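#struct-pred

JT: dropping the chains for the assembly here, can someone run the whole complex?
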Amino acid sequence: MITYLTLFKKEGVRLIKGNQRLLKKMNRTQVLDLIRREGPLSKAQLAERMKLTFAGVSKIVNDLESSGILFLRGEGRSSGGRKPALYALNATAFYVVAVDLSVDEIHVALMDLSTVTVDETCLAAPGDRTPRSYVEAVRLGVQTLLERSGIPRKKILGVGVSSPGPVNSVTGEVLYPPNLPLWNVVPLKERLEQELRMPVKVEKDANLHALGEKWFGAGRGADNLVYVLVGEGIGGGIVIEGSLYRGTPFGAGEIGHGTVDLHGPRCNCGNYGCLEVMASGLAVIRRIREKIRAGHASPHYPAPEKIQLSNVLKAFQCGDDLTIRELEETSRVIAAGLIGVVNSLRPDMLILGGKLSRGFPLMTDIVKGVIRERVVPALSEQLQIVKGELRDKSGLVGAAALVMEEIFTLQLK
Amino acid sequence: MITYLTLFKKEGVRLIKGNQRLLKKMNRTQVLDLIRREGPLSKAQLAERMKLTFAGVSKIVNDLESSGILFLRGEGRSSGGRKPALYALNATAFYVVAVDLSVDEIHVALMDLSTVTVDETCLAAPGDRTPRSYVEAVRLGVQTLLERSGIPRKKILGVGVSSPGPVNSVTGEVLYPPNLPLWNVVPLKERLEQELRMPVKVEKDANLHALGEKWFGAGRGADNLVYVLVGEGIGGGIVIEGSLYRGTPFGAGEIGHGTVDLHGPRCNCGNYGCLEVMASGLAVIRRIREKIRAGHASPHYPAPEKIQLSNVLKAFQCGDDLTIRELEETSRVIAAGLIGVVNSLRPDMLILGGKLSRGFPLMTDIVKGVIRERVVPALSEQLQIVKGELRDKSGLVGAAALVMEEIFTLQLK
DNA sequence: TCAACTTATTAAAGGCTGTTTATAAACTCC
DNA sequence: GGAGTTTATAAACAGCCTTTAATAAGTTGA
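RK: done, full complex below.
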């Protein structure tokens, strides 16, 4: 019954042509996106927002309704005339598969168009750490979800994959991820498409965290936003004018590798005094180790060489002084590093995410404070600085959003 | 005879509607932009590039030709069939007025669509430094050029203004420019439109340098570029996906105000250890003053408190050791500061401009060297680092480009 | 040189957008 | 309960680009 996919897919290459089909796709995606973001809307509201005539919108909405992706949901309030019919998104018209690859776990989820999870599974990363095994694990995970849910393949828009390391999102290749030494250049998209026989899109994890927050999290209202991922390292994702900014040809968003200390130590990236080397989770661990080795006793820590991020966060929860001081100082350094990003990009929102920022909630306030203090007030007032809302789900949600772009955004090129 | 303007202007608000008019405008601007950027093209080439049918393009080109903005210029080479007719941009179909406001000079130029200057004039900034006097000076300058050239107002697309200080480019207001203390909030666009009775667009100088290089200078081939303006201060302009990125609501591009030294001195912007406070022209002057006061004799300098940027650049040209060392060190700091920009934005081009970078040509090589060394090679190889081509013209050319967006780019919203 | 092939061009017919216009239905307000 | 307002539908319309067919103007190679 749902013919939306065929309606669009059929066009193939031709769709790109600067012709009426483009116009059609533009207006249809815009209707769907408006309704997705703002909930049920009437035809009149859509016409107003889209600067189309009522009749034009009526045709579009009727088409989308009969294709099953929109449905009539109640009536709106009258403002002196006939009550408008409200149309809502049928979130179960299609589903997406979201995959979050990390070094030690593989999360796979089957979600509907409002990111409600139908079913999910989490597999331990394969012991041999080879690309081949990861691909096989993903295949298995996806297959399991498809079978358990009974959702037909036709209703699956595609598979979105969040992967660590630099990702060439055009080719879908993962390139030398630092924490997966056996992965050199892995054509992940190609391999997975072979295995799964579905369209696959691969993107860098931090970019998908950003995209997830933009579409379904804290960043919903922001056009230009920077997502800061503070965990063992410091990564980031940049959304500009509403869509993910990837750079030329890719690799943008590495906001953790700007110089904040001209005389700082060398970072793995080749630079000296990077934000990451000065203020990431690993930097915190390094400094706590040094302090402990230097005789600063703390009951919350194991032997210095065994300290992990989880120990640090636990120590913080137990109120360990040393840890609190280190985390506070680190947050101030992060804030100082972000000032460059803010002054360069002037986003309307800065979203803080990642294990460290979640484990140390004060970070947001400290960053907020430093930025308010050190950025021209007229402009810093416009900037919202918030925590990520999606927590450990942001990778999956972002991967889902990546696939949904197919339906909700106009993709030229 | 040239009806292009009426053809488009007539549409008014309606143009925005997501309808065929939009399509028409899209395709026409794309034809004009392709021909502007790539020189004379045949209908077949355009059809290929634009993914339109030959017949479709033919109609468009014929329209544009009869409106006078394109003209037939010779024939192309045959590749086994009839020779194609080539169409070129009629650069004198329209003109633009470009204004470059700086603290002590006002440049006004009348240019055609290929930025050939028909006539120009340079006025000293008014002694009283009031907005009112600047506006009057601009009015006078524009009037003079219009009268001298005899070009009718109908052929002028509009006036582009490059202004120092933060500029709200939507409202066309200049906000508290640091070097013009009498200017608080100046509605420059509004005032000039009243005086000149022409459409006026105002933008921050660094942004227009970037735009100028993108359209007519070193950045022609780049989609994502960062322009770095190194003069007394360090400013910048960012072009993303081919168009100027302004941030929310404006003010982006201030790449001189990222922290590069956590313990550095306070900058006027409120931050500490900014790139600007560490490595701008004024920072160089400050350090040379200190050295001289500390007894480091140099025959090339006047009394320390009288040293200006021009003295520094002259001393460099005379081969003054102290100066060379300072400029080299400064360039390395600038490079270190730009690494953050490169890693965040991953542009395909970095353009260095401004008085200091022009006066000390080695800067480009030093920056190139440091960045090659400290940015992941796979990605830094893709990055071009070049000098600006437009030199002291880039403000004017950028202002011209700003106005030409009207014709050559699709402007939604 | 000339047929065969290729490429460029024009013109008319056609398809598909959204728009305009006319009409009706449903609601509020006094 | 009628005037005025808002929502909705349907048919005729206008304007884009596409399709198709016919023509024009080159190249190539025997």
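JT: nice. The radius of gyration of chain A is 23 Å. The first helix of chain A runs from residue 4 to 9.
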